[in-house]
Amino acid sequence: MQDKTESFVTFYSKNNISPVSQDISDLEKHFQRRESLFRSLGILPNFVRGVNVIEFGPGSGHNSTYMASLKPQKYYLVEGNPLGIKQTQELLSGFGFRDFHIFKSLFLDYSITDKFDIIWAEGCIPHQNNPITILKHLASFSRKGGLFVCTTSNAISYLSETIRRLILNVYFPSGISSLDLDQALENLKPLFASHLSNLKGMSRPIDDWIVDNILQPLQGRKLLSIPDVIATLNDEYDLYGSSPRFITDWRWYKEIIGEERKHNQNALTCYYKSNLNLIDYRYVFAPQSVEFGKELEAVCARSWELMSQIQHGDASKWQSMFDLMDEISSVVMTFAPDTAKAIVEASQWLQDGVPLDRELSHFPQWWGRGQQYLSFVHKAA
């Protein structure tokens, strides 16, 4: 039985919300965004037509409209939030889609003997209490040769959001467990709206983003990195595609046979050489050494731990957090000077109590590549 404490479903259901909507007023543009994502993952429209698809955590169904438009033969959706189910049903039906079926279930409670050609798990495994367990369970529904798609979010890509979450503790030093969402949103929206205005391509309502990323009690939950997913699925799956794309392979295809295939090992090497690119979406940085990538991974991982401890009420961790921010800025300064300046500015701003009359030159513009997409092929043998 899935642990229901401090989960997405618990938070959403308790507050009767589904803060995961997308702007699809321009449906053609929305479908173009989704098609670009699918292409990065190696999925062309004809790959979906006539196959069996299962999607976990469709939220309000906005992204599901594109999958449904590709006309899979069987399209199952699994969602635990009653409001999300209602909105998804109404949205897909409103577009005239009929060949889909929504199941109300927590992920770990869902069971079916069918195997699927495509499993889609977008934005629903990271930030769970037990992401590795959920990852294994969802991947188990794939047929041999099928595709499993999931998203990741690690302490590098999420660093800018991790630091922004601490603004909440400055605003509400007595604690955030009993916050009134509407009042907190009213207080925080002017500040975060100015930051989010710098994020190009933003297609999500500001209110939804604040509730889901800042006000939702994520402390105690866990992130999920690309190395985490590869290590978990390595025996049965090969990494196939990603968004953003980071895998290069200059090996001659005739040599990629038997024990020399090593698709996942090559992907990990490429990842560690390029994971600096997750820290700031504004730039594409030159490849670094694998050793640098592993150091960056380790130092940033501590930021999530400290943020969680502070949001659990341990005020003694503030200084450790500020020291860590200085350390991270030093690690990236040579290769990402603008990012380093943003981290230093954010640290000082937090230490000074988040004065709203202070004009910030670097922090508001800095955002990481918060979420990554991975597609895996279920090995045939």
Task: Describe what is shown at a glance.
With 381 residues, the chain is an alpha/beta fold.
Structural class by secondary-structure content? alpha/beta
Question: How much is the average pLDDT?
Answer: 93
Order of strands across the main sheet = 3-2-1-4-5-7-6
Number of helices: 14
Shape: globular
Question: Roughly how much helix do the residues carry, as a percent range?
Answer: 40-55%
N-to-C SSE series?
Answer: HHHEHEHEEHEHHHHEHHHHE
Q: Unreliable segments (pLDDT under 50, ≥5 consecutive)?
A: 1-6
Radius of gyration: 21 Å
Largest sheet: 7 strands, mixed
Number of strands: 7
How far from one another are the termini?
A: 31 Å
**Which band does the percent of strand residues land in?**
5-15%
Report on the architecture of this protein:
- It is built from 14 helices and 7 strands.
- With 381 residues, the chain is an alpha/beta fold.
- It has a 7-stranded mixed sheet, with helices on both faces.
- Strand 1, helix 4 and strand 2 form a beta-alpha-beta unit.
- Helix 7 packs parallel to helix 14 and helix 13 (318-332) runs antiparallel to helix 14.
- The longest helix has 22 residues, at 290-311.
- It is globular and about 60 Å long.
